[in-house]
Amino acid sequence: MGHAARTRLAPADAASVAEAAALLRAGGLVAFPTETVYGLGADAASGTAVARIYAAKGRPSFNPLIAHVGSLADARREGVFNAAALTLARAFWPGPLTLVVPAAPGCSVCDLARAGLPSLALRVPSSRIALALLALAERPIAAPSANRSGRVSPTLAEHVMADLDGRIDFVLDGGAAEVGVESTIVSCLEAEPLLLRPGGITRGAIEAALGRPLRAADPGDADGEAPLAPGQLASHYAPRAALRLNAAQPLAGEAALDFGHQFWRSGDGLRLDLSPDGDPIEAAANLFGYLRRLDASGAAVIAVAPIPREGLGEAIMDRLTRAAAPRG
Ligand code: TXA
Ligand code: MG
């Protein structure tokens, strides 16, 4: 599934939901209605499919995405639920609540969708169309809001077309998304849950279900695109090794992260090429996994080949620049 030259828009009847599920299973991009806003979906296990989400949205950075699943049972194959997470899932799923939990050992959600984090965001949407699509796709579907980066979240299929026509494969038209704001995000990484983003489920309702007050992080921007709290940024995967960006060639003892086969000298450390053909989609899909492998090789420094800041190259360089910044 390459870049979609033409975007098909169809009413969400049984036939088009089946067609959309087949596209998702083949690595395509499908916008679909949830009860909150329209989501831009891709197979959460496929790094290249997820990379195409960021490319289609024109996102200049890699935020971790929400993995949508059909049931709590499916969610528990992907993430580890503590007591609070179970209470909230049972109270509000299906519905506009997203839970951030530690990734389970068999988690299928790829590194890129999780932005390299050891945790992931999960939600069971209540929209009948979304649930039918998830049932046929038979896998977690990563989906941010189906808008171009910096635009408001879409509540109608026409909004999606206005932003993404020609950039995605399919738009399932299910009419207006009834809630109109994104899901509430609660982190259940610790025993005491933390409100990361206000949304479709009120703080009061969550506190009533928990039987106690909810800690709150900094609210972040209304669109939910920017990092929600400084702590969330700090929790992004950071390699232990130092990164030497725009390296001409790896030096003795350095591990090497190449792009488009630019390195001809061996740095005698582990050397991985994000994309030998210089394809930024393939490079984005490999980014976090390769950083982790190079870091685990024990090298003190990872030499990184120059990567053009075009298309997804901008987000890749944003991530690498953050990883290269000195940490306290
Ligand atoms: O209502 C919604 O939630 C919509 C519909 C389509 O489901 N989706 C949505 O996704 O708003 P998105 O990608 O625009 O927002 C996902 C938010 C981001 O702010 C991201 O930082 C946060 O979830 N997030 C995802 N994984 C996380 C993690 N492991 N830790 C902390 N925050 C996470
Ligand atoms: Mg959004």
List the helices and strands and how they pair.
Layout: E1 8-11, H1 14-25, E2 30-33, E3 38-43, H2 47-57, E4 66-68, H3 72-78, H4 83-92, E5 97-102, E6 119-123, H5 128-137, E7 141-142, H6 157-164, E8 170-173, E9 184-187, E10 194-197, H7 203-210, E11 215-216, H8 230-234, E12 242-244, E13 255-258, E14 271-273, H9 280-296, E15 301-304, H10 313-324
Parallel strand pairs: 1-8, 2-8, 4-6, 5-9, 10-11, 12-15, 13-14, 13-15
Antiparallel strand pairs: 2-3, 3-7, 4-7, 5-6, 9-10
Helix pairs in contact: 1-5, 2-9
The chain binds threonylcarbamoyladenylate and magnesium ion.
Helix percent band: 25-40%
**Model regions low in confidence, pLDDT < 50 over at least 5 residues:** 220-235
Approximate shape: globular
Bound molecules: threonylcarbamoyladenylate, magnesium ion
Query: Can you summarize the main beta sheet?
Result: 11 strands, mixed
**What is the overall pLDDT average?**
91
Structural class: alpha/beta
Identify the strand order in the major beta sheet. 1-8-2-3-7-4-6-5-9-10-11
Number of helices: 10
Gyration radius, in Å: 20 Å
